[in-house]
Specification:
The protein contains 9 helices and 14 strands. With about 300 residues, the protein is α/β, with parallel strands linked by helices. The protein has 3 domains: about 80 residues, Arc Repressor Mutant, subunit A, CATH 1.10.10.10; about 110 residues, Periplasmic binding protein-like II (D-Maltodextrin-Binding Protein, domain 2), CATH 3.40.190.10; about 100 residues, D-Maltodextrin-Binding Protein, domain 2 (3-Layer(aba) Sandwich).
Length: about 300
């Protein structure tokens, strides 16, 4: 096991770009990672990394060992999964990445029941809003709300995530209530994006479709920030209902053009490396969430 731990340290250090990042991923100290790499270098009699104050890079020998290490770790994981399957149990580490707001508001309340059903699973959840390749970053499973680009990853649709328009009552009192998608052009619209230019809201109501170019004083890549700005009266937002739910319930936000929603509808997907055998821990969590998420998402919107 010590050899496998060292090989895992090697693979993660290469994938994540530093010993410190590998240490965080494994929940150990940087010095422990350094010792594991040093043990490999002693065993094989050669340097595996070129080290500098800013970065690390594999040597030629390190790159060769890295390729073997990836295969050995995959075989070890498959063997562990096979033995667990023979015992009829789901066990072992499971690293999951999910969006920040979704993770806190929707995913977190569902995890205790999953862990109660599978007490031998060692679950680690990291939250951020970047669309990442789970294999490249050492995750077993990534959850993402998106219209997915073409990918070599396996993807399973979990549930729909409707996005609709909301605003604070005070904003609507001051600026009027839009009576059609076209009227949004005259309103202050807060956009989910990385740049505050060229925003188009794609909306649908049954067979009717509307693509509206909108503008406003604020854009952000964080939905919570936009929701809080809307609550303060800064403008209209087009966001998932689960983000706005608590403010709708308290009367701080109200739906605008409630029959219109974003089109095409986006969904939540589970992404995982496309291997010949999906780990039982990944399969168990995905199967659980496929059942648990739809009612949780529905309950989140008043």
């Amino acid at each position: 096991m010590a050899q496998l731990d060292a090989l895992q340290a090697l693979v993660l250090s290469k994938q994540l770009g530093s010993f410190a990042a590998a240490a965080r991923a494994l929940g150990v100290t940087r010095s422990q990672i350094s010792k594991l790499i040093a043990s490999l270098e002693a065993d094989y009699g050669t340097a595996l990394f070129v080290r500098s104050t800013r970065a690390i890079a594999l040597t030629g020998a390190g790159a060769t060992l890295h390729d073997y290490a990836v295969d050995l770790l995959a075989i070890s994981a498959e063997a562990r999964e096979a033995m667990a399957a023979l015992r009829g149990t789901v066990a072992g580490p499971l690293r999951v990445n999910a969006p920040m707001s979704f993770g806190k508001l929707v995913l977190a309340p569902l995890l205790p029941q999953f862990l109660a059903q599978h007490p031998k699973v060692e679950l680690r959840v990291e939250l951020n809003d970047r669309l990442i390749d789970p294999f490249e970053h050492g995750f077993d499973l990534t959850l993402r709300i998106a219209q997915l680009p073409d990918s070599s990853l396996a993807a399973r649709r979990m549930c729909a995530v409707p996005r609709a328009i909301y605003a604070a009552p005070g904003y609507l009192q001051a600026h009027g209530v839009p009576d059609s998608p076209k009227a949004l052009k005259t309103h202050r619209c807060l956009n989910y994006a990385h740049a505050n230019t060229g925003h188009v809201w794609h909306l649908g109501k049954g067979r009717e479709k509307a693509n509206v170019a909108v503008g406003g004083p604020l854009c952000s890549n964080n939905g919570d920030l936009l929701v809080e700005a809307a609550v303060a009266g800064a403008g209209l937002i087009l966001q998932p209902g689960f983000l706005a739910a608590r403010h709708i319930a308290a009367g701080r936000l109200v739906p605008v053009l409630p029959q219109w929603q974003e089109f095409p509808e986006i969904s939540l997907y589970a992404l995982y490396p496309a291997t010949r055998r999906v780990p039982t821990t990944v399969r168990a969590l995905v199967d659980y969430l496929v059942t648990a998420l739809p009612p949780a998402m529905t309950a989140a919107v008043p």
